[in-house]
Amino acid sequence: MDFIGAYSLGNLLFLLKGLGTTLLVAFIAIIFSFLIGSILGILRYAKIPVLSGIVALCVEVIRNLPLLLIIFFTFFALPEVGIKLSVTMAAITALIIFESAMLSEIVRSGLNSIEKGQIEAARSSGLTYMQTMQHIILPQALRRMVPPIVSQFISLLKDTSLAVVISLPELLHNAQIVNGKNVNYVIPTFLLIAVIYFLVNYSLSLVARRLEIKERTNRKSTGKVLPAKHQAGEMMQ
Amino acid sequence: MISFKHVNKHFGDFQVLTDINLEIKEGEVVVVVGPSGSGKSTLLRCINRLETITDGELMVNKKLLNSKDTNINDLRKEIGMVFQHFNLYPHMTVLENITLAPRKALGISTAEANETAMFYLNKVGIPDKADSYPSQLSGGQQQRVAIARGLALKPHIMLFDEPTSALDPEMIGEVLDVMKTLAKDGMTMVVVTHEMGFAHEVANRVVFMDHGRILEESEPAAFFSNPKEDRARLFLSRVLNH
User: Fold this and answer.
1) For the ABC transporter domain, which residue ranges apply (chain B) (predicted)?
2) What is the mean pLDDT of residues B31-35?
3) Which CATH number fits domain A3-236: 3.40.109.10, 1.25.60.10, 3.40.50.720, 1.10.3720.10?
């Protein structure tokens, strides 16, 4: 084991560059898969004839394929039909396809978890479907979705390392190159990137926990932290 | 105000309502009683189309309920509904619960909606709970908020679907008192309930249902002292003598 050699400035900078790629790919994939996953989840929840069925079929197929296969597909198969993607684009596309399917299921089950009585109360007071969605279903469902969505984001971030197979220069890939220089670097390098993955992902789950706790205290508050708009009601009493 | 003519409803092969004929006039309080699964709640839920009827004619406020020309959202604004499990919105304060539909469905200003909400919260006796969340209230208080929420639309009709069935016994009284006041004020009310005392005291008419049919329709005094149908007599003996 050669910690000093493995942690030379050049190696560290090279690994940091890998981390940069990992974070960039994960960030773009998270944004797009969240948007697409939400839309797909809502479409499936809304039970629109034909459309919801097609969405369900696609989601089920993708969810049951290994991500690695999808990465191979976007990088090696798409060029065969004339779509040539760079390594980074192929990795991002594969992640978006896979994670959108996973997230759409989280969104759908979050929406489904809202009791029927809530919807009936809203609709029976003359609110339209869209108003009910906007004011009753989505705000409650989103709160329930935060923990599973964040763990899906953590999965996504870790899964970027699968793109090592198409030589995306991300953290694990760069670690392997450092290891290739000297067999004594292997353990120090793996230890270091393990710590990096852990710190990044753990801080994500800390943010999620913070959000959850904040949410819980908000709902149970006894009127001490109410926003200003409620004050009108108090004055009238 | 509400008129059922030969209304049938099926859930798949199962017939829930059979040949329902019922007229409810403005200002009337009609209490629907009957054993579980007799179709009482379904009958009530047809009135604001939470359930659709299979055939027959159902008129509410001179509008045909199963017609394409009827804007169901507009019609629902004229009908308040109170549920067994309150169905308050847990992520909103009491005030927001009450003002949501007036603001979004009727389009009135927040200030005016708040004023109306406070008026009805006073009426149900809990103006001090305006800024609480539903989870901070007792069941009885939650149900009173739900009644205020229904009233805030200034509806012509109020529907009550077993409003006291999910309440602790000591909270039933406070909800029934609010409903009695409402009846005295002349509100048209259709109430599905197991509270025979309430039916006896407040109802203009009692409707007895079993197996999806209306078996008897009488004034409460007549219904409770001398029910015409054997099935109604059996039902009363079971609910009154325990």
Assistant:
1) 2-236
2) 95
3) 1.10.3720.10
Chain B: give the shortest CA distance to residue A130, in Å.
11
- Supply the pLDDT for residue A207: 87
Encode chain B in three state secondary structure: CEEEEEEEEEECCEEEEEEEEEEECCCCEEEEECCCCCCHHHHHHHHCCCCCCCEEEEEECCEECCCCCCCHHHHHCCEEEECCCCCCCCCCCHHHHHHHHHHHHHCCCHHHHHHHHHHHHHHCCCHHHCCCCHHHCCHHHHHHHHHHHHHCCCCCEEEEECCCCCCCHHHHHHHHHHHHHHHHCCCEEEEECCCHHHHHHHCCEEEEEECCEEEEEECHHHHHHCCCCHHHHHHHHHHHCC
d(CA B240, CA B218) in angstroms, rounded, equals 18
- Between helix B94-101 and helix B110-123 the angle, nearest 10°, is 120
| Residue in chain B nearest A124 by alpha carbon | B76
Q: For the full predicted model, state whether its pTM sits above 0.95.
A: no
Residue B36 C-alpha, separation from nearest chain A C-alpha, in angstroms: 19
Confidence category of residue A232, pLDDT binned at 50, 70, 90: very low
CB within 8 Å: A121 and B88: yes
Mean pLDDT of chain A: 89
Residue in B87, B100, B149 nearest the CB of A120: B87
* ipTM of the complex as predicted: 0.92
A210 pLDDT band (50/70/90 cuts)? confident
In chain B, residues with a C-beta closer than 8 Å to the C-beta of A127 are 73, 100-101, 104-105
pLDDT, mean over chain B: 94
Task: Work out the pLDDT band at A51, boundaries 50, 70, 90.
Answer: very high
Touching check for A125 and chain B: CB below 8 Å?
A: yes
The dihedrals phi and psi of B219, each to the nearest 5 degrees, come to -70, 150
- The answer to whether the CB of B213 falls within 8 A of the CB of B194 is no
The whole-number pLDDT of residue A211 equals 79
Percentage of chain A beyond pLDDT 90 is 81
Residues 6+ apart with CB under 8 A from A166: A71, A72, A75, A87, A90, A91
Under the banding of pLDDT at 50, 70 and 90, the label for residue B69 is confident
B chain contacts of residue A219, beta-carbon cutoff 8 Å: 90-91, 133, 135
